[in-house]
Amino acid sequence: MQTLPNIALLGIGNVLQKDDGIGVYAAQYLFTNFTFEPAINIINGGGEGINLLDIFIAYKTVIILDTIALKDSPGSIYNIPATELGGYGLNSGSAHEIGVLQCLDMLDLQDKPRPNSNIIAIVPQEITFDFALSDTLLTKFNDYIKVILADLQAKGVTATKKSSQTALEKIILKFKDPSAQ
Asked: Do the strands 41-46 and 7-12 form a parallel or antiparallel pair, or are they unpaired?
């Protein structure tokens, strides 16, 4: 039986809705351009919601990458312990809209331990139908990556850039057109 790394980096969002996809793009960017020691699992959680519950059960630490709707300037970046966001999930939408925060609430209801979790989130500029990021989030993307890497370093994970780097634009294009080189 293979042992899982202790840390999962979980990219959340919908790449069909412009800035909402930044968590997924960031996870793919990190997977493509860096190696990590000790190893971490980088997971594209997309909009899977309740299907992500097993991730919160399996890992000791889960870092969630997502957008956050706050009254702040688009591109503002937050690193929030998930414990500060608990209790907001249940009864906040229909049964098929259960998301990450609801997964944490479900662990509480089932008397299961929560992993050490935090959300590294960025305030979106534009949520609309498009495979892209707004100019604001494109400009802030490297800052977002730096915050994620600093958080991993604080958790004892060293990130090393791979010799060959893939640009963010190319990663976004691969989501839009998986056959693109």
From this structure: parallel
